[in-house]
Amino acid sequence: MSPRRNRPRASGPPPGVRGADFGIERTDLWRGEEWVVRRITGGAAAKHYRCPGCDQEIPPGVPHVVTWPRAGAVDDRRHWHGACWNARDRRGVRPSRSRNAPRY
Fold this sequence. Notes:
The chain is mainly β. The protein has one helix spanning 82-86, and strands at 25-30, 33-40, 49-50, 57-58, 64-69, 78-80. A four-stranded antiparallel beta sheet has the order 1-2-5-6. A two-stranded antiparallel ribbon has the order 3-4. Residues 1-22 are annotated as: Disordered.
């Protein structure tokens, strides 16, 4: 068995991941508006967030996507699961309500 490596490895993206995918902003067109999209790595995700696509929690350490309107403010940022952001046009609007709330 080889000895444990005590010094950090070279910085960069994890193996098999392109470096341009994380931390770099891109613009997507959605609902007639330009949205800035930034991918967040699992190591950079430090808080709990609520995904607007599926209304489920995004725990710390899970890679996800942060989006906001190009003309929007900082408060307009939303944290999405990557799959939910990719499927945003195929999903309907999900109302936020508890399990025991009436459906009317």
